[in-house]
Known about the structure:
The chain is α+β, with helices and mostly antiparallel strands. The protein contains four helices and three strands, in the order αααβββα. β2 and β3 form a beta hairpin.
Amino acid sequence: MNTRQITSEYRLAQWRQMLQERIANGESINEFCKSRGVSRNTYFYWQRKLRDTAAKQIAREAAGASQALIPSGWSQVSTIKEEQSAYDSTLPIEIGRYRVMASESTAPELLEKVCRMLGSLC
């Protein structure tokens, strides 16, 4: 790994943390940019870089996986029109064009990670 790559990864990590803090603090993008002294263009540049990085990571993991990317405790949903009884013990979660089902046995850490990843793709 060269110096440029290390610098890029360091900046991505810094911006990832700052954007997570902005969301956790409930700051608007304008408030965040003003308090940090950065332009909106800079903010959206790094947001886009983070999303691209996350998408590439998911694509690499999918290419190396021998099975579909359906974590344990989740089921893939192909259609929205299903009987209500199928939802009695599960929770449908829609983020953008993605839809997943969580059950009581779904690990909260897994649920949080999947929602965060899907949110970064939308």
